[in-house]
Amino acid sequence: QLVAYEVKRMKAEEGNKQKILRHIKELAEKLYKNENPYPAVAMHKVQKPTEGCHLRLHQKPFPRLDEGTVQWIIDQATAKLQSAPPAVRAEKKCMVPSGPPIAAILERNGNALANSARRLEVVRNCISYVFENKMLEAKKLFPAVLRAMKGRAARHCLTQELHLHVQQNRAVLDHQQFDFVIRMMNCCLQDCTAMDEHGIAAALLPLVTAFCRKLSPGITQFAYSCVQEHV
């Protein structure tokens, strides 16, 4: 509802603390009433007699109340209340309109898509430089690649690119290449969430058993030995 109705108001309030606080108080009251719909003390409204009613003719005298009958009615009502199920507030479902399109959000999304494409390009270029042994170029892009790993698209891109190089029989790396690939894999796994477990982490499994380096004649180190600590 805030997004639908209050966008203009929130924009107008920016920078004015008093207005913001008043708005927050109103919201707090709404939330409180929503959580506590039944006031502790129910106040019964007693209608006041109309003006000039005492001047009316043919007034009936107020009947004398029978104490026993009144007590019986009170007892009946008390018994009903005690046996009645607790009152449950019926949920009112309502459709909230999507509200006015916020230009800033749309622009931001547009920028985000462009940024995402640029990030993927950076990841691809860096991996290409690593496998082409252009280490100086790879080093320049490397911080940007590690930052890009925060996004799932970039992590997915990394697994795809590395998979292509395995298919091209380029899995045996020199020390510097191995170091770069391991750092990218570690960063990718570090930023993985539980949702990535069967996607990105699973896609990395065959890769970490493929990429390796020769430490000395007859001794090969595989990538999994450097990334196996991740959950």
List the helices and strands and how they pair.
Layout: H1 2-5, H2 7-13, H3 17-35, H4 67-83, H5 103-131, H6 135-148, H7 152-167, E1 172-173, H8 175-190, H9 197-208, E2 212-216, E3 219-222, H10 224-227
Parallel strand pairs: 1-2
Antiparallel strand pairs: 2-3
Helix pairs in contact: 5-6, 5-7, 7-9
Domain SBF1/SBF2: 99-231
InterPro entries: SBF1/SBF2 (IPR022096)
Pfam family, one: SBF2
Summary keywords:
mainly alpha, three-stranded mixed beta sheet, 3 strands, 60% helix, SBF1/SBF2, MTMR5 protein
Provide the β-strand percentage band: under 5%
Question: Regarding quaternary structure, how should these chains be classified?
Answer: single chain
Name the shape in a single word.
elongated
Major beta sheet, strand line-up: 1-2-3
Order of helices and strands: HHHHHHHEHHEEH
What's the end-to-end separation, in Å?
Answer: 40 Å
Q: How many E-type strands?
A: 3
Number of helices: 10
Provide the low-confidence segments as ranges. Answer: none
Mean pLDDT score, rounded?
80
Q: What integer value in Å does the Rg equal? A: 36 Å
Largest sheet: 3 strands, mixed
Structural class assignment: mainly alpha
Helix content class: 55-70%
Question: What does this molecule look like?
Answer:
It comes from Dicaeum eximium. It holds the Pfam family SBF2. This is MTMR5 protein. Residues 99-231 form the SBF1/SBF2 domain. This protein has 231 residues and is mainly alpha-helical. Helices cover 60% and strands 5% of the residues. The chain has 10 helices and 3 strands. Strands 1-2-3 form a 3-stranded mixed β-sheet. A hairpin with a 2-residue loop joins β2 and β3. α5 (103-131) packs antiparallel against α6 and α5 runs parallel beside α7. It is elongated, with a radius of gyration of 36 Å. The model has no long low-confidence stretch (mean pLDDT 80).
